[in-house]
Amino acid sequence: MVDTLEGIKPGLEGRLERVVDDDLLTHHVGGQGTFSTPAMIGLMEITCHRSIERLLPEGHTSVGYEVHVRHLAPTAPGRTVVVTSRVAEVKGNKLQFAVECREGDTVLGTGIHKRAVVPATF
Predict the structure, then answer these.
(1) 95 has which bridge partners?
(2) Beta bridge partners of 101
(3) 21: domain range?
(4) Is 7 part of a structural domain of the chain?
């Protein structure tokens, strides 16, 4: 198990921009569909992982183990969302991130996501 993560410090940020395509939509709401909560959470997880990936010890990866997110507003197909992450806390091999998803000035989702750094071969 990893005890310290030297390069990963509070304040480290990540960013991902993505057009809302069919893979990110839920259609049970009718019409053209809308940006789904699971898709938003997935983008938040990817953003967190990518922000630290280059700083992980050799032979290690990060896995999500907790999510507390509120989906606050809808967005339509074809719109661009921007997901940001910021390392809020590092305790041993556990990381806590503040995450947010926006479309322009509108906050679509916000919350926290926790990840653990573990050996890449389980």
Answers:
(1) 90, 115
(2) 83, 109
(3) 13-119
(4) no
